[in-house]
Amino acid sequence: MFKLDAKETIINHMNSDAATAGGGASFSKEAQAIIDQPAEPRFSSTVVVGVAQLIEAALLLTLGLGIYWSYVDDGSHTLYIPVILVLVAGANVLFNMALTHRIQAYRTFVVQVGRVLAAWSLMFLLLIGTAFIFRFTSEFSRVWMVSWYALGAVVLVIYRLSLRSAVLAWTKAGRLKQRTVIVGGGQPAQTLIEAIEASADNDIQLLGLFDDRDDNRSPEQVAGLPKLGRVSDLIEFARHTQVDLVIVSMPLSAEERVLHMLKRLWVLPVDIRLSAHMSKLQFTRSAYSYIGDVAVFDMADRPITDWNLIYKWVFDRVVAIAALLVLSPIMIATAIAIRLESKGPIFFKQKRHGFNNELIEIYKFRSMYTDQSDVSASKLVTRDDPRVTRVGRFIRKTSIDELPQLLNVLKGELSIVGPRPHALEAKAANRLYHEAVDGYFARHKVKPGMTGWAQIHGWRGETDTLEKIMQRVNHDLYYIENWSPLLDIYILFLTPFALFSKSESAY
Fold first, then answer.
1. Which of 98, 90, 85, 96 is closest to 58 using CA atoms?
2. Separation between Cα atoms, residue 39 and residue 342, nearest integer Å
3. What pLDDT was estimated at residue 3?
4. pLDDT tens-digit profile of 359-371?
5. From CA 366, how far away is CA 348, in angstroms rounded?
6. What is the pTM of this model?
7. Domain ranges within the chain, ordered by starting residue
8. CA triplet 59, 65, 67: central angle to 5 degrees?
9. How many CB atoms lie within 10 A of CB 38?
10. Share of the chain above pLDDT 90, in %
11. Domain at 177-300: CATH code
12. I need a surface site. Which of 53, 243, 333, 440 has the fewest CB within 10 A?
C-alpha cells in the first residue's frame, strides 16, 4: 500500500540530501570503520539454491543413465530413459516439498539428510507401485533399480554433506548474509534487533542504525548496535559500502513519517522493508514477508537481482562481443577519419555516474577539436556548435561516437540497455540535472546503459529545457520499474530505427 509510483516520486520527491551524492561526505567514526572494512562479495541465496538443485539433478541423472548404459542397454529397452528423467524430476519436486532446498535446510545435518533420503525412497516406491499397477515390472532390471536407489542414496548423502560444509563456510564468511541497517531507534528498534538475532542471525548481518532524532528516544547504541548517523547519512553510507537491506522500524500509524522516509530512501538500489512488529493490526500471513520470524512489509526491491542479474551479465557480454565483431569495420574507419581531420587522441574519456552513483570513466570517439573539448560537459553541445568537427557532427548524429562504450560494457561498468549515464556537470536550463529533477539519482538504481527506453522514444541529444530532462528521467524510471529480459531485447531491437528516425535533437 506504500508502493511508490515513479512519476509521482519525480514530481513530489523532496530529497535534497540525495542531490549531494558524490560530495565529500563526513561519517561518524563507527560508520567510517564499516566503510573502511572491505565487504565480502555476497552470493544470492536464490542462485545458490537453484545451482544446488541443478547439480543434484545432474548427479542423479548421470548415475541412473550410467548404470543403465553399463549394465542394461542392449538396444531393446525404450522405457528406461524417460523413466529416469521422470524420476529425477519427481525427486526434485519431492525434495522441494520436503523443504530441503532452502539455505536454512542446507545448514542442518540430520533433518536435511533424513528428509532427502525419505523423499528419494518415496520416489522409488512410487515407481515400483506404478510398474506393478500397470504390469510392466518385467520391463525393468532389478539390479538397475536397486543399484540406482542404493548408490543414489550414497551420492545424495555425500552431496548434501558437501553442500552443508560449503554453505556453513559461506555463512561464516558473510557471503550469504544480507548487510542490513535499521532506520529508527529506541525501544522499538531494540525489540526488532533482538527478534532478528534470535531467528535470522545466520542470514542477516546488522551493521547499525540511522535515526534523525537526537533526544533520549534515540540513544547512541541500541542492543549493542551503534547509531551510525542520520537518514541523510545513510544515503551516502550505502554509496560507500555494500548495503543489501534497509529495515524501517516505525509504526504504521505514523503514515506521513513512513512515506517521507521511504521517499528519501527510494533512490538507493537496496531492498526496503517496513517492520510489522509494532503494528497492532493483524493481517493474513500472505500479507507479510519474513526475515527469520520477523514479519515485514515489502516497500521496495532492488530492480535486478538473482537470476536476472546473471541473465543481464550474459546478455551484455554476448551482445557487446557480437557488436564489436560486426561493427569493427565502422569503428576502424571512424578512427582513421578522426585522425585525418584533426590532431589529438581518437578516444575521448569522461567521468560519469554509474550504478549507485559510482564514478566511472566512459569511452567515446572524439567528436570535438582537442583544444575545445569539454570534459565536464558544463556547456551542452548545440546545433552547428563550432567545437564539433565535421566527422564529429556525423558520428554524434548517428551515435557512432558511442560505440567505444562497448568496452565499458565488457569491463562491467555499463550495460547494453539502461538509463544513459550523464556527464557530471550536465545542465538543463542552467541547472545541474540533479538540482533540476527531484529524485534524479533514483535512475542510478541499475547499471547505466548504451541505449535505453528514453532513447528509443526520442529523448536523446540536447537537454536544454527542464521538460526534456524530466521526460528523459521519467522514461528511465519507467524502465527501472518495469524491467524484464524481453524489455531489454525490445529496446535493443528498436535502437537502430530510433537513431535514424528520432535524431533531430542529436548534434
1. 85
2. 46
3. 42
4. 899 999 998 888 7
5. 5
6. 0.82
7. 45-172, 177-300, 306-501
8. 100
9. 8
10. 45
11. 3.40.50.720
12. 333
